[in-house]
Design goal:
The structure is a homodimer. Chain A has about 220 residues and is of the alpha/beta class. Chain A is built from eight helices and seven strands. In chain A, strands 3-2-4-1-5-6-7 form a seven-stranded parallel sheet, with helices on both faces.
Chain lengths: ~220, ~220
Amino acid sequence: MEQKKKELLVLEDILGSNKKIAGEIKKKLEKHGILAVNLLSAPGSGKTSLLEKIGLKLKDNYRLGVIEGDIETERDADRIRKIGLPAWQITTHGACHLEARMLAKIFDQIPADLNFLFIENVGNLVCPASFDLGEGLRSVLLSVPEGDDKPKKYPEAFLTSQVLVLTKCDLLPYLPFDTDRVIKEALEINPHLKVFKTSATTGEGLDELCAFLEEELKQRLSQHA
Amino acid sequence: MEQKKKELLVLEDILGSNKKIAGEIKKKLEKHGILAVNLLSAPGSGKTSLLEKIGLKLKDNYRLGVIEGDIETERDADRIRKIGLPAWQITTHGACHLEARMLAKIFDQIPADLNFLFIENVGNLVCPASFDLGEGLRSVLLSVPEGDDKPKKYPEAFLTSQVLVLTKCDLLPYLPFDTDRVIKEALEINPHLKVFKTSATTGEGLDELCAFLEEELKQRLSQHA
């Protein structure tokens, strides 16, 4: 019991300190008119592929940047740089999620004139959901091969996101995945979720997702103008 | 810095206490001749589907049981019970991995005459790798749709496992996945990994995996006889 109590106190400390730093980041982002989008998902759900595709669609009209969170390697940042976007790698060396203090450390490197700052979190459908990074939008990705039973098994990520992106929808013909079931279940957890069905391979749903992001940016700029 | 130090001390406490309890579980399992297999993977890699299929293959000749670790819901345990196997659900309510103390709590319910005790960990390729559950074998699953770049991005699970099970290999025709690359990379992290290419849909590789498990059980029984 004594240990459990100690653990809970330290966890409270961590989350409290994270919230404070996230609040400071949020203020800076709003001041500069940057819409930061935090992407959460299991490993291999297609976060980097989605960013490559929407990056190519948005980059002619907007200034974009990507923060890549990974336990090890710079593989994802390298993929983003290949399509001509700036990427900042945060390698956590074991930690299973990004925390606001990790972003704060590299924040000086982020140009103040960005429009969109995408933050690809560590591949983990659990822990990243507990850590606010000061983002303007949180998006959870669920890929068709992961199965349609996931929202209620991993509710926190769905509860704290504003956007649900179903990915790899081109694989629907080959897999038992009930799209209606998964959307219904996700909306039971969080009725405010905006849902997009996408495929980075066929391009399905990407125009709709980009249009939504552009509209969100516009609205926020007018709010903070 | 003070907080970081406190966090590290608590983490050491947690891991130390986990190691002690895992050691006790390991002794009990060996005494009863039970081979416990801890299954680690990302959400939706096919842990439950694999267990359903190898459960059906092994259940006529062995006594089996399954511990299901999930953040929420008893969905996986229900699937296992449907094929006639006993299943014990551990619902962690937020915790992203199983710990030895969670198993210790339900250990009295596990029949002492089991041959195989499968432990399906929480769907998370990161944190479960740090927690020994007293298992005799640790197995990491990687599904083809997750992509062939995962071992070096999530090295701990591959480093601490004895078995790598590639799952959903029936999807290889539809996805860019270099099997040789992923095996080479996994073996660079851990040259002792025994690798199986499987599909719960077509049955590929399941006989080989079951034969391996039977042989492991036989060897351990002769060692502890």
